[in-house]
Amino acid sequence: MDVRRDFPILASNDMAFLDSAASSQKPEAVIAAMDTMLRSGYANVHRGAYRLSAEATDAYEAARAKVATFIGAASPREVIFTRGTTTALNMLAAKWGGDRLDPGDNIVLSVMEHHANLVPWQFLKGLELRFANLTDDYALDMNSLRNQVDERTRIISITGMSNVLGTITPIDQIRAVADTVGATVIVDGAQLVPHLPVDVQTLGADFLAFSAHKMLGPTGIGVLWGRMELLDEMEPFEGGGEMIDEVGLFESTWAPVPHKFEAGTPPIVEAIGLGAAVDYLTDLGMDAVRKHDTELTVYALEQLATVPHVTVYGPTDLNIRGGTISFTLGDIHPHDLSTILDENGVAVRAGHHCARPLMDHLGIPATARASFSVYSSSDEVDRLVAGLELAAKLFGIAN
Amino acid sequence: MGLDSLYKEVILDHYRNPRNRAELADVNRHADGNNPLCGDKISLDLTINGDIVAAISVQGHGCSISQASASLMSEAIKGKDLQEIARLRQLFSTMMTSDEAIVDPDRPGAVLGELEALAGVKAFPVRIKCASLPWATLDVALAGDAEPATTD
After folding, report:
1. What is the C-alpha R_g of chain A?
2. Which of A117, A248, B8, B63 is in Cβ range 3.0-4.6 Å of A335 for a Cys bridge?
């Protein structure tokens, strides 16, 4: 995939940027779309009766429609703009979880969840949290999941792709388990949606949450997709402007979906940026994106295997593995690795990756993580490997 | 300053063979320190007799800089009185954060002994908090505060 020239920051920086799972870089098309909106198209949306506001509203709603098409939503109305994946999952925990569940009900998660799909559920009192385990090859253990689910299971909320291990989960199989007890399936798609073709008609989820900034778009906006009948049933999360229908001093009624979930002035320019990112990814083709990630992952795993004392944490089965590789090198702490790599122009993430329970499960305090996006290249992998060899030498574990 | 000045042999030695890890029988000061962002953890147990730190025990895990700094600190303060420890602490802070050159390149170790091995950290701003965590934890232990220390 030859797209590096589309990303201005990569042209102006001689850096191997291998931290796209934390946040991706932005193509010129996204930057330009936001710039144009700010320079010539900007006004608040769904408020003014003047032409500029009407045009801004059209642009904002067109972005919603692009996202809907991108994920195969039945209607743009099923696409709710949020602040990001975290806000979307907090909305679901509070409003699809909290208010609607009874004491003694349980919610099933997995041990590899990002804190964003863990801590919001911990807020709920009187409900039991249960956790599905991993197999020895770092896949979601479906037997373990089945064992956790019973007739009191109301929600199964699982990552679509682990931000640490790269593990892709079988949402269709999770759906089948959920259906045996009538539970709702929520998918944390923060890593899934940027990297794999997603069609919500066949995915098996009832709700899907993801963020623009990990899929070449801007920060400050994300998406909650849900099936319309569920969104209709769910109560609003925040009150304020735009989300209302009739407002009195003591009570109000809500606007229809999606606006009842979009209180206050939304991230307008960011929505335009997300729309441009979706156009860009659609032009590349998500099948091609997936192929690129897989080829680079295969190359990276081969190269990492040549470095003595490297341990990789993640599935060996490439069918269930995305382009995110967690690893350690001998007894070198990942923060030390990160510093050494940084000095050699290689940016990786080091730490617990907002998944402390998973680190405990793996029995390690932290990992280093290299993660790819559409612009990532085998040259960058080579620079990573050269940096690791240098680190091994510095720490005296070269052989 | 490059990586060689950060990962000196002394640092790697104290990382791999940390000193003063044995548990103490009589502990009268304790503190926990952690950097939530990066996961470094340090726990200190002290036995203070009068104004002397008679014994110290260090526990914890994290990067080589945080763990070596804790080990070096434990060696530097063991058997010292509180006034001398305060002086070392001040010098260490200056070495980490100030442009003032307190280390004499012609007489290595003359000012801060083995602690001078950490002088290279200053060139890596994001790592200063790793080196400072043990000392921030020591502050809490000596003050008898209940709140854990952090340098994040």
Report:
1. 22
2. B63
Q: Give the minimum alpha-carbon distance from B3 to chain A in angstroms, rounded to a whole number.
A: 7
Cβ atoms A118, A188 nearer than 8 A: no
CATH of the domain at B81: 3.90.1010.10
Written as six digits, the tokens of A373 are 């996006």
Distances (CA, A) of A308 to A247, A250, A268, A328, A399: 67, 68, 49, 11, 6
- Considering the domain boundaries, does residue B107 fall inside one? yes
Q: Which domain holds residue B35?
A: 3-143
Is B85 among the domain residues?
A: yes
CA distance A379 to A249: 63
DSSP for A82-124, please give it: ES-HHHHHHHIIIIIIGGG--TT-EEEEETT--GGGTHHHHT-
The residue annotated as part of the active site, out of A288, A354, A364, A398, is A354
Q: Which residues in chain B touch residue A332, judged by CB atoms under 8 angstroms apart?
A: 64
Q: Does residue B152 have a pLDDT over 80? A: no
Q: Which of B6, B64, B124 sits opposite A333 (nearest CB)?
A: B64
Answer whether residue B120 is part of any domain: yes
% of chain A at pLDDT higher than 90: 88
| ipTM for the complex shown | 0.88
For this structure, is A43 an active site residue? no
Residue A291 belongs to domain spanning = 4-27+285-388
CATH number of the structural domain spanning residue A122: 3.40.640.10
| pLDDT exceeds 60 at position B1 | no
Handedness of CA A369, A372, A375, A378 (dihedral sign): positive
Q: Which of B112, B74, B78, B113 is nearest to B95 (CA)?
A: B112
